[in-house]
Amino acid sequence: MSKRIELKDLNIFYGKFHAVKSVNMTIEPRAVTAFIGSSGCGKSTVLRSINRMHEVIDGAYVEGQVLLDGVDLYDKAVDPVRVRRHIGMVFQRPNPFPTMSIRENILAGVRLNNSRISKSDADELVETSLQGANLWNEVKDRLDKPGSGLSGGQQQRLCIARAIAVSPDVLLMDEPCSALDPISTLAVEDLIQELKENYTVVIVTHNMQQAARVSDSTAFFNLKAHGQPGELIEYGPTEKIFHNPEQKATEDYITGRFG
Amino acid sequence: MASTETGATSESLPQDPTNDLQSTIHGKARLGDKVFRNLSTGSGTLILVILAAVATFLVGLSIPALTADPEELQYGAFWAYALPFAFGTVWASFLSMLFAVPVAIGIALFISHYAPRRLAQGLGYVIDLLAAVPSVVFGLWGINTLAPLVRPLYVWLADNFGDLPVLGWFFAGPVSGTGRTILTAAMVLAVMVLPIITAISREVFLQTPRLHEEASLALGATRWEMIRQAVLPFGTPGVVSACMLGLGRALGETMAIAMVLSPASVISFELLTPSNPNTIAGNIALAFPEAFGLGVNQLIATGLVLFVITLAVNMTARWILASRKEFSGAN
Q1: Which of A34, A92, A172, B313 suits B75 as a labelling partner, its CA being 20 to 30 A distant?
Q2: Under CATH, what is the fold of the domain B78-330?
Q3: Confidence check: pLDDT of B326 > 80
Q4: Beta-carbon neighbour count of residue B47 at 10 Å?
């Protein structure tokens, strides 16, 4: 189920604004790939173009190719809605559906497109998804309570459980811990380590220690200057990026001597 | 107790000339704060006073009609007189909401989530404009345009559904020769409440957190599924409030009903016949010029009934919303 992602000469635009310039990279399956870089360098934009969420914004579009195990996701015949079923996403702030119970939140993705699911199958899916997100023991007695009643960290794990309930091939995470306290962050990071056994995980983070802790490969994005499009500066094994980067800009960013 | 102690301590403090903390933290409430607080408290009180005044007027002037001997009353026994109007009011409003609510929500969703921005803006203006049309104009439109226009449809409805088991209750003939039936009146009402419900619903839908919409889309929802999953649940309380405002207008609407409907004093669900139940407001407008003595009180008492109906409807809606509070997303 875990699949390889290739970005080929990917250029991303918001209307007339050229946000990201010609990204070429291969993201390996069964691994965690971290995107790092300063604010506004386009790392979230690249992430959102992988599951075609970028084009949800008015006037936003993409040029180039995103291949999922060799299949171009930007081919004319591709339905973006179906792409998003294969590539799940977790957002910066936990966003469980406030009007739904914990159980209904997990089933939200499965219930789409008129698909029906028997009660016993649903029960099983809710349990396996919540267990997959290390949340089952904390919520198993209150599955019918609203998801918005959980703590921030629990809500974020609920969102991860919701994303993996539709059994995607890839899991994209856009700064998943930036709104969480250190203990919750640790719980989510542990979870990410477990998730990579089954999924291709791509995580955007502002926290370099986090990138160093959880990822196998790291991609550093940067802007040449303000108003210029963001670029992929360096991409390689996390160990190498953090200890022996090839580019001066990467080293400056990693060591905190930026700008 | 605590405050006197604090007072005593502060008095016993040595007056240190170098320590001017006291002089910098002592101070009175600012004038602007006071004025604004009193102004908003006053406005809040005023609305209660107005409501109380209206209620007192209605109750005070209704009592003579409610306690009088039916023989003395211009329009006969009170409840026998008022009930058909109360029924007509609720029935006409219900029908108008039946037409208006789905259309209003559809327009609001189109403006907020489907239409290109420029078209959405234009459409928004047109809807607001519709709210500014006086009800007399809608009344005239109902009589002169809508009634003749829909009459052939009524004939067709009566011919095809008039004899069927359940539908017959609503669509039985004979069809009104003018087309000025309760169904026509309800359509006119629907057009009148449409802009209110649309405008508020549109604002509510636009407030849907982007985060919830994206959560849904990222799960692989289509636009419509995203609306059902994120926009509608978020907007429900607001849409109910919008409907309550619209319903308030429909329940109280006088001019359009008085002009369009050819009324009778009946309780009937039939939509197409010449004998239609009048509404309370419509009846007051029609009967008031000829009322005298206790008859005036009797009409005012029907007004009290309308007041109670409106209050009951609003409280029911609030109660329904409150019972779902845990899942409202307010937390």
Answers
A1: B313
A2: MetI-like fold (1.10.3720)
A3: no
A4: 9
Report the alpha-carbon distance of residue A245 to residue B246 in Å, rounded: 65
Where does residue A57 rank: exposed (0-12), middle (13-18), buried (19+ CB within 10 A)? middle
- Find which of A91, A95, A150 to mutate to test the B interface (most B CBs within 10 Å of its CB): A95
Burial A212-228 (b: 16+ CB within 10 A, else e): bbbbebbbbbbbeeeee
The beta-carbon neighbor of A112 closest among B211, B221, B327 is: B221
Of A81, A89, A99, the CB nearest to B327: A99
Within chain B, residue ranges assigned H as helices are 2-12, 21-25, 31-67, 78-109, 117-131, 135-141, 147-161, 168-171, 182-206, 210-218, 223-226, 232-252, 255-260, 280-287, 294-322
Q: Does A98 touch chain B (CB under 8 A)?
A: yes
| Touching B: A residues 136-195, CB under 8 Å | 145-146, 148-149, 159, 162-163, 166
Q: What is the per-residue pLDDT across A17-48, written as a single tens digit (0 to 9) for each?
A: 999 999 999 999 999 999 999 888 889 999 99
Residues 6+ positions from B15 with CB-CB distance below 8 Å: none
Mean pLDDT throughout B40-64? Answer: 94
Side-chain-side CA neighbours of B123 within 13 Å: the count stands at 18
B266 interface with A at CB cutoff 8 Å:
no
Q: CA-CA distance, A20 to A230, in Å (whole number)?
A: 5
**Is the CB of residue B12 less than 8 Å away from at least one CB of chain A?**
no
Beta bridge pairs of residue A25 = A7
What is the model's pTM?
0.82
CA nearest neighbour of B208 among B171, B233, B189: B233
Mean pLDDT in chain B?
87
Q: Does residue A214 contact residue A193 with C-beta atoms inside 8 Å?
A: yes
The C-alpha angle with vertex B238 and arms to B237 and B240, in degrees rounded to 5, equals: 65
Tell whether B211 lies on the interface with A, counting CB pairs under 8 A. yes
**Rounded distance between C-alpha atoms, residue A4 and residue B299, angstroms:** 78
Search chain A and give the residue with CA nearest B210. Answer: A95
d(CA B121, CA B115): 9
With H, G, I as helix, E, B as strand and everything else as coil, classify residue B40: helix
Evaluate whether B305 touches B280 at the Cβ level (below 8 Å): yes
| Confidence tier at A167 by pLDDT (50, 70, 90) | confident
Lookup: tokens for B289? 């010029």
Output the pLDDT for position B3: 44
Instruction: Measure CB to CB from residue A95 to each of B212, B233, B328 and give the nearest one.
Output: B212
Residues B134-149: pLDDT tens digits?
Answer: 989 999 999 999 999 9
Rounded to whole angstroms, the Cα distance separating A155 from A173 reads 14
Residue A175 has pLDDT above 70, yes or no: yes
